[in-house]
Structure formats: structure tokens, C-alpha cells
Amino acid sequence: MSPNADQPNNDDSSKAEGPIVRSASSIWGLVLDHLVDKHMEAVAAMRVNPPGGVARTSDGVVVTSKELYDQVLLNADGNYTNAGYQERMEQSIGPIFLGMDWGPEYVKESTPGNAAIGKVTRREAFELALKETRTALATIPSPDGIVDIQSLSDVVVAKICSHYFDIPDGIFVKPGGFSVSNLLSPGVCPADYTFPSAYIFHPDPDFILSFTGKRTGQILRESVGKYVADKRDSAQLPAAPITRALFEQYPDSKDNDLLARTIVGVMMGALPTINGNLNGVVKAWQRTATLMALQAQLKANVQADAFVKAHEVIELPMRQAMQMQPTPDAIWRRATKDHTLGTQNPVQVKAGDKIYLSIVQATQECLRNGSDDVSPIFGGDRRKTPHPIHSCPGFEMGFGILLGIVYGVVEFQPK
Ligand code: HEM
């Protein structure tokens, strides 16, 4: 992560940089701080707690109960549309199926990619993530034994992406974290995916988030576009399973741009959400004694299989930490027609209203009720029938990656 603007940077590598680069880095630090602050303000503004789980506020209609959250996402009466996402994506990574409503076009574009993502098992993702975490921890700073989780995430997520997506390839997309180069070509993975994701999923992005979300999205579309064109020219199919499935879905080079933006869109679904939940869980545990307590439990557990051990020791506290501070903390829809939402203190929704769906309130309700359900963080549970059409196809993969990295951090004993 780039240094905070007000902190001296004693890293030797920065001494080689000129003053312009250093001050640009400081500005970038300020931009990131600004985004975090604005985000916290927006979350606080949504902290209404209406008795029926829905209220009209000055910002729009806010849904806070798990029941109404599920109802809006299931969209049984076709009251809501994802078209607002598509309008934003058009200015950023380009339009893809995430911005479509149910119909033949959505089914055609989403089915092969979602199926390829769904094939990755939790165990497979866990084992890869744990292996990469163990390797990376040898080189990641851990002052006073506290692992710098963002640095770890940048390295491990880039490796996992190369495995499943063939990106970053080191040529058209570079591996790396947040820095001033995020606003310039070529694309940087995983960092660049954060801004379009926040811009598209956040109900009300401000000017700076809109600017960075559009710019980095355009860079990714262009950089991955070059990667796609290069592969086509050499008539090569990537070995990485998810990107390969997407190449097979779009064999004709007239679809190069659609293929590129679909790859970017799928990765955008995965990376910032994994990074955000990973940071949330590990930092919450680092601030308290939880990390040490779990480390002791892990040591005491006699299971030989790390995957089983992870489920016995890490899974439940990880779910609870995710429920407490989920990423994303909100998503949104737009109403297509006038209707009534809720039964106790119902709200009269008008066509065109923005509907804020507060994931953090839905998951904290689960936590209060003693449920370990994290499905709201994934836009619903795709294994259920019916399920919201856009519910995450990468739940098993994403959960396995999170569990693997978190397990690696808990077991780590700094020298
Ligand atoms: C911690 C991990 C993850 C979280 C929290 C997460 C969260 C979400 C959420 C909330 C949605 C629905 C958005 C909405 O309805 O407005 C979604 C959809 C989606 N996610 Fe994930 N995701 C995760 C991992 C992944 C992974 C690993 C992949 C792919 C490799 C992925 C790909 C997608 C795609 C393609 C969609 C759109 C599906 C569709 O429109 O049919 N996600 N995700």
C-alpha cells in the first residue's frame, strides 16, 4: 500500500525516486485516505434502523433487514433492474452480463463463465491460497510480529490470479498493489480492480471514486484487450482454467473486446471482495487477542489435514468477522415500477428510485440471531432454488481462498 501522506517513507527503494514521483505518491496516499473516509461516511449515513427493515431517506430507499434484502435480490415481480450497474460499467470496464436483467442475452453471456468459476472447489482454492501464502510470508514485512496484510494480499492474490486467469501476465498487466501508477497504463493486478468495483457497486460514489473507477476500468479493458489480441495472434489458448473457458466461449476475434471486458468483469467480482474481507478479518483479529487465541487452538488441533483443521478452527470465527464487517457492505438496484416494499411500516417505492441494499445490516442481523450465514455478502446463495440471478458463482472459490490465506496468517510464527 502506498505510504500515508503525512508519514515519512524510510524505504530505501523510494530514495531513488525523484521528488515528483514522491509527491505524486503522497497525493495517491491522500486519494486512498479520502476514499476510505468517504466510504465510512456513506456507511454511517445508511445506518438507519427502521422497524420494518426499509425506510425512505434523503438518499433514497434503504433496505436493512435480511428478509427484504433477499426479497429485492430475488426480484420475483421484476420490480428492480441492474441497468444502473451497466451505465457505470459502460464508462469503466465496459458492459457485461452483471449489468443485465434476466433474459436470453444474460443467459447466453453468463452461463459458460459462471460454470467455469463454479467448478473451482473450496478445497482446491484453499490449498493453492495456503501454499502461496506460506511462500509469500517469508518476504512480507511483519513488524512486531504483525503481518502487513495488504502487502501479503497483493502478492498472494496476484499469484492466484495468474493461476486461474493468466493475468497478471507481467507484460500487458503487471502484478502489484496500490501506487500512483494505478492511473496509468498498463493495468496493475490486483490493485486496479478495486476502483471500478467500488465505483460500480457503491450506491453513491463521489467525484474522486467515480474518476478513479472509470479511469482504472478503462485501463484494464485496454490492457486485457491487448493480452487477448496477442493470444489470438499466436493462436494460443491460455492454460488458466477460467480465462480459457472464456476464450472457448468467444472463439471469434470479432468478440475480442467482449472477451476482454468479461475477463476483467469476472476478476473484478473476485479480487476486491477477497481483499476487502481478508483485510477486515485479519485486522480485526490483529487488534484483539483473537489471532493469538486461534493460533493456540490451531497448534492444539491434532487433525493432519489443513483443510479440515481450517474448518474446525478458523471457519466460524472468520464467518463472524465477515458478518461484522463485510465487503461489499452495500449493493444497489433501481426500481422499474411503482410498488410497495415491506409489510411493517411499508415504503411506497417509485419507478426510478435507487434502492440501497445494506449488506452490513443484513449480516449483523444474522450474527445477532446466532446464524453464521454469510450469503448476503455474496449477493445470495446460488445453490438455492430460486436464487438471485446475480448471486455470486465464486462463493466456493472465494471462500476457499479467504480461508487459505487466513489460515496461513494464523499459523505464521515470525522469526
Ligand atoms: C469473498 C469473495 C467474494 C465476494 C464477497 C463476492 C461478492 C459478490 C456479490 C455481492 C455479487 C452480486 C452483486 C449484485 O448482485 O449486485 C457477486 C457476483 C459475482 N461474482 Fe462474486 N464475490 C466473491 C468472489 C468471487 C469470485 C472468486 C469470482 C470469480 C472467480 C466472482 C465472480 C462473480 C461474478 C461473475 C458475479 C456476477 C454473476 C452474475 O451476474 O451472473 N466472485 N459476487
Task: Offer a quick outline of the entry.
By secondary structure, this protein is an alpha/beta fold.
Describe the 3D structure.
The chain is of the alpha/beta class and 415 residues long. The protein has one domain: Cytochrome p450. It is 55% helix and 8% strand. It has 15 helices and 9 strands. The chain has a 5-stranded mixed beta sheet. The protein is globular. It starts with 11 loop residues before the first helix and ends with a helix. Residues 1-23 have low confidence and may be disordered. Protoporphyrin IX containing FE binds at residues 97-98, 110, 114, 117, 266, 269-270, 273-274, 277, 328, 331, 377-379, 390, 392-394, 397-398, 402.
Secondary-structure blueprint of this entry?
Layout (H helix, E strand, L loop, with lengths): L11 H4 L3 H27 L8 E4 L2 E4 L2 H9 L5 E2 L1 H8 L13 H15 L3 H16 L11 H17 L7 E4 L10 E4 L3 H8 L5 H27 L7 H9 L6 H32 L2 H11 L5 H19 L5 E6 L3 E3 L5 E3 L4 E5 H10 L26 H17 L4
Parallel strand pairs: 2-9, 4-5
Antiparallel strand pairs: 1-2, 3-6, 6-9, 7-8
Helix pairs in contact: 4-8, 5-10, 6-7, 6-15, 7-11, 8-9, 8-11, 9-11, 11-15, 13-14, 13-15
Bound molecules: protoporphyrin IX containing FE.
The CATH architecture: Orthogonal Bundle
Note the total helix count.
Answer: 15
Rounded to the nearest angstrom, the radius of gyration is: 21 Å
Report the major sheet: 5 strands, mixed
The first-to-last residue Cα distance is 23 Å
pLDDT averaged over residues: 90
Under CATH, the topology can be stated as Cytochrome p450
Q: Can you list the ligands bound to this structure?
A: protoporphyrin IX containing FE
Q: Structural class, from secondary structure content?
A: alpha/beta
Report the top-level CATH class: Mainly Alpha
